[in-house]
Amino acid sequence: MTIREPSETLHKTSHAPPAALINPVVTGPLRRTLFFLALPVLTEQLLTTFVGIFDTYLAGGISAGATSAIGLSAYVGWLASMIVMLVGTGTTAIVSRQEGASDRGEANHIANQSLTLAAILGVFIFAAMYLLAPWFATYCRMTGETYDITVHYLRVDAIGLAAMSVTLVGSAALRGVGNMRTPMLIFSAMNVVNVAASVSLVYGFGPIPAMGIDGIVGGTLIARILGAILLLVVFARGRSGLRLIAGELPLSLMRATRILRIGLPAAMDGAVMWSGQFLFLAIMGSLRTGAEGDVFFAAHIVAVRVEAFTYLPAVAWATATATMIGQALGAGNPKRAKMAGHEGVLQCGLLSLGISALFFFGAEAIYHLMSDNSRVWDVGVYPFRIVALFQPLMVVSIVYVGALRGAGDTRYPLLISFVGSLLIRVPLGYLCGIVLDG
Question: Which one, of 180, 66, 67, 161, lies nearest residue 118 by Cα?
């Protein structure tokens, strides 16, 4: 793992400050500290995944077209989160480094600047997603009712994505100072509200009429707006050590540049990954047409949703690893930073082996649970078993990428994503799916 010196991307720290001696992230037992840093993020990610699974389950009881709309919205939401990485990655790297160096004042400056950048990005994301909604649906070969449902869903969801940008960036700042618990609680509240609101709106409750697919996106929208409000309340109260200060919100060119210089390669990395995934999605949409095409697309969406039970724990350990590495480097301990990267891979890698086995042997039961359509079962079960075999390798790559980003190195992950997504996955998918009709 390449460790960049602080002078390459952040202010240089000449020595470990005295406060580092009482910082458990810097001085605590490595394995235990990393594990308990990752647990709140893991809980948050699993709850978020459950909501995605639950939304897919609700859509599966409506129609294959509704499932396709939910699935495409997940990809669009992922794109939005990749754009937000432009700010979030730099925020975590700098805030954690300043926290390790006991410079809480500068960490707070960066956090406030990041919230302003997040708000600007949120407006951009809303406008872009609203305008591009028809293109997304057309690109995935959606027609008729499925097209109409999808465009409407994406445009309503765009409002929630704008709010989500503030929540994601604020959470990135909190994690930089080692506060994993508060983001977990915020996202937990969002998920509970999402489930309750979606069920009430989909099926109707008391005076609330049954809204079908609109109920799913309505519940998501309510939850995301709530998350942004809760995040701002936390910063306004300043309990985490980071406080919302009006005088620090106007953008400073120097600080904004520092954040974006680290975040830009990470955002490009995310854009490359998303582009590869979206091109693959287009291949899926080209395998069949009409109702049969909806079946193939729905089978793929079920796989994507369930696979998150591997992907998101990997993100949890990557996040915890990035925080430990950033603070260790800020405290002048590159050896501990390097050990944290390898420990993160070991811990999450062991977890991924169990998940991989569950996916392989439980594929049929998973598809029966997630869809009422027997054709979706027939199409999806065998490919999902193949996907199960590659989960441990995916975990290794995700955690090491998080480790590199925590060290301020965002260029190598960009290169890895470009090769893996655009030069390997997409061409092989086209060859096997379109050319060989496999």
Answer: 161
